[in-house]
Specification:
The protein is about 65% helix and about 10% strand. The chain has a three-stranded antiparallel β-sheet with strand order 1-2-3. Strand 2 and strand 3 form a beta hairpin. Helix 2 crosses helix 5 and helix 3 packs across helix 4. The protein is globular, with a radius of gyration of 15 Å. This is DUF3806 domain-containing protein.
Length: about 130
């Protein structure tokens, strides 16, 4: 039996969540639905189910970053798995999901996702200034 690549595992987990949510794509609308799902699930998650939720939902959020913003799954400077975008930015979708689970709407993945173009532009500008 062939061993699945880590990238394949991440993408398959994301696809499973997409199908469960009955969403047509990995886009901003999907992230909005993800944020709503997190809010409805927050009160009922146990510590053990929270870890599984962070993993599955983080894969989904990461795939939305990949497909919407042209990112790539990668290892960050600290060895964590996340999404690199534009060669200058790295985001950990698992952390973002965990933050919303812990703190609610103030840490919404949907707000993060919609503010991302602004963050990317700022990061790109800083890189150009230092080049």
């Amino acid at each position: 039996m062939a061993v699945e690549s880590p990238l394949g595992t991440l993408q398959n987990a994301a696809e499973t969540v997409r199908q469960q949510l009955r969403l047509p794509a990995f886009d901003a609308e999907a992230v909005q639905r993800l944020a709503e799902l997190i809010e409805t699930q927050r009160p009922s998650l146990t510590d053990s189910s929270r870890e599984n939720a962070v993993t599955a939902l983080g894969c989904f959020l990461g795939q939305c970053l990949v497909q919407t913003y042209g990112g790539q799954w990668a290892a960050g400077p600290d060895g964590t798995t996340g999404v690199g975008i534009g060669g200058h930015s790295f985001f950990n979708p698992f952390y973002r999901v965990a933050e919303q689970l812990a703190h609610g709407r103030p840490s919404s993945v949907a707000v993060f996702f919609t503010e991302l173009p602004e963050r990317l532009a700022a990061a790109s500008g800083r890189k150009e200034q230092h080049s």
